[in-house]
Write a structure and sequence with these properties.
Layout (H helix, E strand, L loop, with lengths): L6 E5 L4 E5 L11 H23 L6 H15 L21 H20 L7 H11 L38 H13 L7 H15 L6 H15 L11 H6 L1 H14 L2 H38 L5 H11 L4 E3 H8 L3 H13 L4 E2 L8 E3 L1 H6 L4
Antiparallel strand pairs: 1-2, 3-5, 4-5
Length: 375
């Protein structure tokens, strides 16, 4: 990496765009700090992935996706909470519904593109599909969802004249994105996958191939790549929490690559994020297992109603907010039986009423939601 060059500025008549060098080139990684972090990141991510073999992580995947959706969108300025993500649209204050819609789109984009990996490789087609879903019916919906930009964009500032960074001219976007796809999939570019996705994420954010939604697509792309390459069996690793906590450093490190050719510092930052996120993911799964044991014991104390309580809990692990109507449908019993069960689960500290209303009450599995606040 000693001779690494990120790219160069091109005069466009009134401004200069940044033209990144292609990823498809010879890479030699000699920095021992990077290699040490890579070894540690592989080890910790392997521990996280191990859980997908020994526990039913599918029960909890939607919580991870919702957490990622909330934080990825928060980086873009939305104010929706993780609890909000599980409410119906009608339960969200009108002034926050646009934010809520963006969260729902992110969840849908993650779920649908993960499913598409059964038939599609990691590719520009997959990323364009994700982008289409992300912008459907929300801010940016008129800015060519799923299409690479056909005009110049910029990052920071009000105009091109005072922009912090100007990505490559739009006529180069298709070629540069094809370069990413070749780099990701061609065996001759045989780098460790965590190094590859760190480079791909940097390059994608530098190209900024869409008119809007680049940040969300670029963060979603990390998980898609790891699952597509079999590094993760299930989508359990999401870096948005780390990037949100270190937002300024994140942007600074991207800029250091572009204008100081400091790719090593970017790799160290990215790998540190993988390590920290994997550690927190393992801790969360362990805490979920302990919580599950605890609430199972509480259900035992309910006697015959314990079976109904477990039906509700199985739902809550995927969707941790529920209404009385939802409980009635799950246990398939009379309303009064559902009310009694809810009262029991409130008394045991499993459910908490969150609306303060007399009618149309909603109940949250707060102790479970809290586990994801530290991710």
């Amino acid at each position: 990496m000693k001779n690494f060059k990120a790219g160069y500025l091109i005069e466009q008549g009134g401004y200069k765009s940044f033209q990144p060098e292609p990823l498809c080139r010879k890479w030699v990684i000699e920095d021992m700090d990077v290699l040490a972090l890579l070894s540690k990141a592989d080890r910790f991510m392997g521990r996280l992935d191990m859980y997908s073999e020994f526990i039913d992580v599918d029960l909890f995947i939607q919580m991870y996706v919702a957490k990622e959706a909330t934080l990825s969108s928060k980086i873009e300025g939305t104010q929706t909470t993780m609890q909000d993500a599980f409410l119906d649209r009608s339960d969200i204050d009108e002034e926050r519904r646009d934010d809520w819609e963006e969260i729902q789109n992110y969840i849908k984009a993650m779920n649908e593109t993960i499913s598409l990996l059964d038939t599609l490789p990691f590719s520009t087609r997959l990323l364009r599909e994700a982008h289409t879903i992300l912008l459907q019916g929300v801010r940016g919906q008129h800015r060519e969802p799923g299409e690479f930009r056909r005009s110049q964009n910029w990052i920071g500032g009000v105009t091109l004249a005072d922009a912090a960074f100007i990505p490559p001219v739009y006529t180069m976007v298709g070629e540069l994105m094809s370069d990413i796809e070749f780099f990701a999939n061609k065996p001759e570019y045989n780098l460790p996958d965590l190094i590859k996705i760190a480079l791909i994420h940097y390059q994608f954010e530098t190209i900024h191939p869409f008119l809007d939604g680049n940040g969300r697509t670029g963060r979603l792309m990390i998980t898609l790549y790891l699952v597509s390459k079999g590094i993760l069996k299930r989508p359990l690793l999401y870096l948005s929490a780390f990037l949100e906590r270190h937002r300024r450093l994140y942007y600074d490190n991207l800029m250091k690559v572009r204008f100081q050719n400091d790719i090593a510092q970017w790799l160290k930052f990215f790998l540190t994020g993988v390590i920290e996120t994997s550690q927190k993911g393992v801790e969360t799964l362990q805490n979920i297992m302990h919580l599950k044991e605890d609430v199972d014991k509480k259900c035992d104390a309910l006697g015959k109603r314990g079976a109904d309580a477990r039906l509700v809990l199985d739902y809550l692990y995927k969707q941790p907010v529920i209404s009385v109507t939802g409980v009635i449908a799950l246990i398939n019993k009379a309303p009064q039986t559902a009310y009694t069960l809810i009262a029991d689960m409130e008394r045991l500290g499993i459910l908490k009423e969150i609306t303060g209303a007399h009618r149309n009450k909603l109940y949250s599995f707060d102790s479970y939601l809290d586990l994801f606040q530290t991710l």
